[in-house]
Each structure stands twice: as structure tokens, then as C-alpha cells.
Design brief:
There is one protein chain. About 5% of the residues are buried. The chain is about 55% helix and about 0% strand. Helix 1 runs antiparallel to helix 3 and helix 2 packs antiparallel against helix 3. The chain is rod-shaped and about 95 Å long.
Length: about 120
């Protein structure tokens, strides 16, 4: 079962932390690369050099393991992508100036609003 974790880091460290999260999948990525090569060898019969016989059950297991390794990496990449999107949104909103109430966008807090048509 998967659960969602939450923790805080300084804004300047968000992308470095995202990189660390990707790095945590290194073992799964290496397994995927290894299985990518080995499943092809199995399907070509190269694991039985004398007879060239393909072990269908083993090939099926390898494909399932390959898919699982890719799924784990994909999930982590999806999480990191969400972090990057959130960080980008944070940067955009922190750079967007908010209107100052005393800059001509209506009456200041200490002024009476001007009402038209109300005598």
C-alpha cells in the first residue's frame, strides 16, 4: 500500500530535493535496464547457447519484473513532476505583485467611499 508523505524544505532546496527523490529510484532504474537487456536475450534463446531454447515462463516473469521496475520509476517521476509544477507555481505567484489598496484601485481604508446617486 502506498501512502503520501509530506515534509518541508527551504524554497531554495526544492529542486535539489526533487533530484534526491529521483536518485532514490536508481536501483529500480538499474533493474529496468538489466531486465531490458536480459529479456531480449531470453527471447532470442541466448540464455541456452547449446539449443537456443527460450524459457517462456522465465521470459514472462522477466517482462512482469521489467514492468514493475518501470512502474516504480514512473510513479516517482510523476511525484517529482508535481513537485516541479508546485515550485513553478510558487515562483510565479511570489513574483506577481499584488495591488496596493492605496495605489488608486479604490478608496484607502481611512477614506469614505464616494457613492453616486445616493443623496
Amino acid at each position: 500500500m502506498r501512502v503520501k508523505l509530506s515534509y518541508t524544505v527551504d524554497a531554495e532546496s526544492v529542486l535539489k530535493e526533487a533530484a534526491k527523490l529521483i536518485g532514490l529510484q536508481g536501483e529500480d532504474m538499474q533493474q529496468a535496464v538489466t531486465l531490458y537487456q536480459e529479456v531480449q536475450q531470453e527471447l532470442r534463446g541466448e540464455n541456452d547457447p547449446e539449443n537456443g531454447i527460450v524459457n517462456i515462463n522465465r521470459a514472462h516473469e522477466m517482462v512482469a519484473e521489467f514492468r514493475e521496475a518501470l512502474l516504480l520509476v514512473d510513479r516517482r517521476l510523476e511525484e517529482v513532476d508535481e513537485i516541479i509544477k508546485g515550485y513553478d507555481e510558487y515562483l510565479r505567484t511570489s513574483r506577481t505583485p499584488t495591488p496596493n489598496p492605496t495605489s488608486g484601485y479604490g478608496p484607502a481604508d481611512d477614506e469614505e467611499p464616494e457613492l453616486f446617486g445616493a443623496d
